[in-house]
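Quick start: read one record
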Amino acid sequence: MESPEGFVKLWGKASEEEEEKVDALARRLGANEAFERYRKQGFDDITGEFRLLRFIRGYGAATAEKNIDRAYEAYVEFLEVREKFGLDDDRKEALKSPMCRTRELPHGEEMLEIVPNWFSLGRARDEVGGHIINYSPLGDWETKKLREGDGFTKYNKYYHTHAEARQLQLARLSKEEGRMVAVIIVWDMVGYGLSKVGDKEWEANNKANNREVTMTMCECMAIMYIINCPSWVRTIWRGISVLLPERTRRKIFLLGSDFQEEFLKFMTASQLREMLSLRKAKAEGEVAGGVGSDAPHEGKINIAAGAEVSLPVFLSAGQRIEWRYHVEYKDVDFSVTVFPGSGPLEVAPLVRTSAGDGFVEGSCSFEEIVGANGKGAVGGGDGGKGAVAAAAAAAVAAPAPAPEMVLCRVTFSNAYSWFTSKDVTFKVTKVVT
């Protein structure tokens, strides 16, 4: 899988050829009354060079050199869509939320309970484009509730204003920084089962009122991640992905429950923790505490053959992670891996624990993790069957700044078993040292 760093080259400033195409597109659009009206009003989110560049890259890249016909046609359709749905009025509402905060949009509070869509996570690391992070926990969506009263009318107003607020934000940031800023979209599939697929009224409403608006937002998606992705989604994706343009298809990644290391390439551990805490739905194997919570993870889990359960714990200065577990039948693999930002660090290397080993416990502090990052080990132990396991960190060329927070991933794995499920009683706690 390609790393998000590989997509930086897709953004940034326009090339000389693209600048010529933007100028040519602007001249051609000069005869359009709506375009000129927006331009004279200084609406950069509609007529600015970066908005035109999005159309050039989205529609003009596949055409012959200097040919901007497709970009021109798509832009004219965009202006027609604005008039059809009265988006100028929605733009006025959107100006009240320059940071595109959902709660500040019309019906935003209500929509967060029905179709939560979060733009509150800030931006990605500058070295991967500084794009805005957008998180949607699809398992929390309850689209059937929109059938009640004027639910769809409220949603449409919210969606149109949200689209305008997003374009205003992207235009402002792109102009200020002199590079094209886009959105990293994250869809979390935990809790999104087949029962939520096929809401015909929801689909009909979107087709009639929102799809055309969505289609005008070309080149606004930097990358899209679909995480905690079940097998049935992967099967559907294999069928529909061939129908997508290559430029779109290569921006979409399907990841399982082990997405954290990939995400920490473009976001901080504190951003990841905040993102995970927004989801209400629980994955199979998640117990008291939940993802992103400070409460202890504890209970009894059954790990199916060929499966594993991972529990995230986020540590900051002055905190320690402690684990205690007992395999009740046969054996499981156990490990604790930390992602401090400069690469994974095993504080409890993978070890197979049997039922006869009794309760196994260990711990590690934030300070031990940060001190060991790139220096060799996180203390002593016997592979997790006692205290902290010895661990070797990957060498780094130069010491990285100490992170404010790290992610500890505690994993119980039964991936090696073909037929037998295993029961584990455990407690994983974060304590103040």
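The mean pLDDT is 84.
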